[in-house]
Design a protein that fits this description.
The structure holds 2 protein chains of 2 kinds. Chain A is mainly β. Chain A contains 1 helix and 10 strands. A 6-stranded mixed beta sheet of chain A has the order 1-10-9-6-7-8. In chain A, a hairpin with a 3-residue loop joins strand 7 and strand 8. Chain A is globular, with a radius of gyration of 17 Å. Chain B is α/β, with parallel strands linked by helices. Chain B has a single domain (5-119, 207-382), classed as Peroxisomal Thiolase, Chain A, domain 1, CATH 3.40.47.10. Chain B has helices at residues 28-43, 64-69, 88-101, 128-132, 138-153, 157-171, 187-192, 245-250, 258-270, 287-296, 305-311, 327-331, 338-350, and strands at residues 5-11, 52-56, 79-82, 107-114, 195-197, 200-201, 211-218, 230-239, 279-281, 364-371, 375-382. Chain B has a 9-stranded mixed beta sheet, with helices on both faces. Chain B is globular, with a radius of gyration of 19 Å. The relative contact order of chain B is 0.19. The chains are: A mainly beta, B alpha/beta. The interface between A and B is large, with 40 and 37 residues.
Chain lengths: 145, 383
């Protein structure tokens, strides 16, 4: 007899974000103690000064939109989410700009200067029946809901 | 280092060779063959004169150059396939230039060819998980950069439509261009075409054209005639400077972009400045990239591009003509063929063979070929 399998939620890639049991999700970047530069995603050496003694650094989970674009055609490969969808740059204060999906019921809503917050969102079901999860920034009002 | 000349170039018509809607069907190897034979013919060379080949393509699969050459002849010469994204064919040209300059060979053929997939071209340099999240849409990076540019420099969407107006006007005068004799859309028509990645519309993005381009580089002694000789004054490359690659290419960053660095290196190598350029080809698959290019290459000050475009500064009869063959928007962008097509246009311009799109008294030309990574090749030709 086959056992029925529960659908699990799996990250699109391990090591991209940190989700505490009782707190808000944060992206995992890299900070170089030598030159102070921060990069995302994390790397095993500093891309600026090649220092290998780098440390994990949790990025701020809030930021402002630098610019956003709504994509109205399906990308060439791999993406299996809804179309149209929004992507853009979010500036995390004093840290860096992240190239990121922007999630909202209305993809047209994102404008320069808008305050956004990091959330996790379902991307698609993989061949094992698991729900693959990615990150996105969403307007602060929507994150509160 | 030895002086390196361009002996000849050859182009197919840039078009869709898919056999649909009454269009002809041609495979990439047929396109490559056509461009190679045209370059040999221009140079007055026989196939046996070619000592080595660099072939450029991004989508045609392993060792695709050999398929093109198998249609021409087998001579036992070294053949190397070069894949460097959208910058593949000027990367191949640069390798050929270096090998002639340092004396390894006297005559090398470079060929670029491509049949391009339909739809949005993806960015293969980002990891799979980012692609699953939809972050591999290069046109959206440009859609974002244009908004930042509008904010920083008070530009308006019409400014970015004007790039397409100019390049389509030039393409109308180039029988090899995708949009040859296909009309001259107005600013309003360009803005009203369907939005692909906001605020970019269909007509602000390069068409998915197929095609091939070839060039032969050699020592001046090998030329059939030194009349109107065109030589390579610089062939330089800059790739992946430190920092966030996407930000480096599309938003202003504390480090110079690869475009800016490539321009500086080319001017130093050629011993010239931007004011010496008679004609320029830039790699602008989306119209906002045009201004990133001309500003990073120091053809004008930062933020000055849109105003100069309105004045006709970049027109064929303007101060610094750019995209005279129709550019990426009007010629189209068969990925592996684009870089050598830019070089071919410089070559024809310097030799005064461009007919209705001829730039008066063209002496020095610069071609800029960019790819994901980011990477940037800059080639300077002079008469």
């Amino acid at each position: 007899m086959m056992e029925s399998k529960l659908s699990r939620r799996v990250a699109v890639e391990p090591g991209i974000w940190h989700e505490p049991d009782d707190g808000k999700v944060q992206l995992i970047g890299m900070r170089c103690p030598n030159c102070g530069e921060i990069t995302f995603p994390k790397t095993s050496r500093c891309l600026y000064c090649q220092n290998e003694e780098v440390e994990e650094y949790l990025l701020k989970n809030e930021g402002t939109v630098t610019a956003a674009s709504v994509v109205t055609r399906p990308p060439a490969k791999h993406y299996r989410g809804p179309v149209p969808f929004a992507i853009g740059f979010v500036e995390l204060e004093d840290e860096l700009r992240v190239w990121t999906p922007l999630a909202s019921s209305d993809p047209e809503v994102f404008k320069s200067g808008m305050e956004v917050e990091l959330v996790l969102q379902d991307l698609y079901q993989n061949d094992e029946g698991d729900t693959v999860v990615g990150f996105a920034f969403t307007p602060k009002e929507e994150a509160l809901r | 280092m030895r002086e390196v000349a361009v002996a000849g170039v050859g182009l197919t018509k840039f078009d869709r060779y898919d056999g649909r809607k009454g269009r002809p069907f041609k495979n990439f190897d047929e396109l490559g063959e056509e461009a190679i034979l045209a370059a040999l013919d221009y140079a007055g060379f026989e196939w046996r004169d070619i000592e080595a080949v660099f072939g450029a393509h991004a989508f045609q699969g392993a060792s695709a150059t050999n398929h093109c050459l198998n249609r021409i002849g087998l001579t036992g010469i070294p053949v190397v396939n070069v894949e460097n994204g959208c910058a593949s064919s000027q990367s191949a040209f640069r390798l050929a230039y270096q090998q002639v300059a340092c004396g390894l060979y006297d005559v090398i053929l470079v060929v670029g060819f491509e049949k391009v997939p339909t739809g949005l071209i993806d960015n293969p340099t980002v990891p799979k998980w980012q692609r699953e999240m939809g972050l591999d849409v290069m046109a959206a990076l440009s859609g974002c950069s244009v908004q930042k540019y509008m904010e920083d420099y008070d530009a308006v969407p019409e400014d970015f439509a004007r790039v397409a107006v100019m390049e389509r006007r030039n393409a109308n005068k180039n029988p090899k261009a995708f949009f040859y004799q296909k009309g001259e859309p107005t600013v309003e028509e360009i803005l009203a075409s369907p939005t692909i990645t906001s605020p970019l519309t269909t007509l602000m993005m390069c068409p998915n054209g197929d095609g091939a381009s070839a060039a032969i580089v050699c020592t001046p002694e090998k030329l059939k005639s030194r009349k109107n000789m065109v030589t390579v004054a610089a062939s330089v490359q800059s790739s992946g400077l430190y920092g966030n690659p996407q930000e480096l290419q599309y938003l202003r960053h504390k480090n110079p972009s690869v475009f800016e660095r490539g321009g500086q290196m080319a001017y130093e190598a050629a011993g010239i400045g931007p004011e010496d350029l008679s004609v320029v080809q830039v790699h602008d698959p989306y119209t906002p990239v045009f201004f990133n290019c001309v500003e990073d290459l120091k053809l004008c000050e930062r933020g000055e591009g849109p105003a100069l475009m309105r004045e006709g500064y970049f027109d064929i009869n303007g101060t610094t003509p750019v995209g005279t063959d129709g550019g990426t928007l009007g010629r189209s962008h068969p990925v592996g063929a684009t870089g050598i097509a830019e070089i071919a246009e410089l070559f024809y311009q310097l030799r005064g063979e461009c007919g209705p799109r001829q730039v008066a008294n063209a002496k020095v030309g610069l071609a800029h070929n960019a790819g994901p990574g980011p990477t940037c090749i800059v080639t300077v030709l002079k008469k």
